[in-house]
Write a structure and sequence with these properties.
heterodimer; A: 287 residues; mainly alpha; 10 helices; 73% helix; flat; B: 276 residues; alpha/beta; six-stranded mixed sheet; four-stranded antiparallel sheet
Amino acid sequence: MSAPTRSRGLWTRAGARLRRDRLASGSALALAVIALLCVAGPWLAPHGAEALDFERIAAPPALDGGHWFGTDNVGRDLFARTLEGGRISLLVGLLATLVSVVIGVAWGAVAGYFGGRVDALMMRAVDILYALPFMFLVILLMVLFGRHFVLVFVAVGAINWLDMARIVRGQTLSLRQREFVDAARLAGLPPLAIIRAHIVPNLLGVVIVCATLTVPQVILIESFLSFLGLGVQEPATSWGVLVNDGAADMEAAPWALLFPAGFLAVTLLCLNFLGDGLREALDPHGR
Amino acid sequence: MDGEPDVVGAPPRRDGDRAKVALLQVHDLRIAYGDTTVVDGVSFEIGAGESLALVGGSGSGKTQTALALLGLLGREARVTGSVKFAGQELLGASEADLNRVRGARIGMVFQDALSSLNPHLTLGAQVAEALAWHRKLPRERAAAAALELLEAVRIPDAAQRLHQYPHECSGGMRQRAQIAMALACQPALLIADEPTTALDATVQAQVLHLLAGLRERFNLALLLISHDLGVVAQLCRHVLVLQHGRVVDAGDAATLLTAPQHPYTRERVSLRPRLA
């Protein structure tokens, strides 16, 4: 009765553990720096992302002149473009992943928990969506709503939650057999409260791993779509597009590949480390 | 339990000293999975504050009976008969109706506390959960109540334990926490399914002592499910012996255990290990 109740929720505890994990907290910091750079890009870069510098076409990186990452083959500043591209790539990656996590977890947990006919119906819907060719869906969306990169989130999210839903459902099926779910039913909790309080927290580990795998996948899908002319269009850009363009010209101007690819690789690596750290931090069995 | 609603139906068959109206009336309960009948016509009654033990070997249908009372069996189970709690029929009741009884009026304690506690929630959160749900208590009030409950089940340093996860506690502690959860809303009936089987002998004695004390304090009716006649003798007045899903023997715990008549009961009594 003496000590005041310290509120140590799941997340505060996980946050404390995460801070102790050097690799994960370092990755989080690096990600924050990259994100901040991308957001602040237009104010940081001496040149605009779309401005052409005819004096320096395909110029190598140099400190004087303001083209720190060099220029591409039409004379645009790569520093500005890399940061500009990062905005799109990060946005697409994080938003599409968020969408897929939210829909996937809700769908999968409900299907798995209720089982029986509900499950069959919900999972058949997933199967049907799975069977739709992805490209067809994207092109259809583009035709219906016009070309806009927000549609890329929608399309990618619409596909990615299917995997998440399947994984979550599988996990939920096994969690539902656990006695603590019976205990919660015995405590008189209704299904949705049980899903929220007992099923979802136990899914976090799987979901986080799955989400960290989804982000790079989404960024790559986005660059593929852009390459096909369905995603981001010139002069707007993304890391995927920059890497693509850079790769085409990498013998003559390797910097056009190296800088955006470097940013992309560091981001993906950090996300993986962070995801791994989070999974461990959220597991109550960890120290 | 004063203010118990009037129960319509036959007066309790157990005559003599207790003339109370039955809190739980189970009549001709049958459970079948496909062609296999696992519980075959079990009937019993428990009055408010009374105690009854279901005894039997493994596969005798005792746990199935307990789960059926609360509507926890899977869809595959076919359950017939009648289960009346305080006059309300529970078999075939809607989930919403069942949820008003479960946790609030009937609590249950399982054998293995480690698997019946959520590994991702602190003890405090789990104990407070039923309270927050049934009583609509705000978080701080529920937390304070959880602390009181943990103290009631005599968990040492309850204020600290409140913030610990199940794997950080000992087996006895977890079992106590489970009992606290079951008692959170002050139920009238506690169903305990092998509550001490997973514990070692000393802890077992403590938990039994605790259960006996809590029964007294809260005027709890108890349905104990056990294979262990030693445990039964300490906690229950009445005993029902199950074999292959049928009641083969019934009676007063004292007589049944000292002078068993039915061959199966005799066998079970003789199986009981004797210390000292």
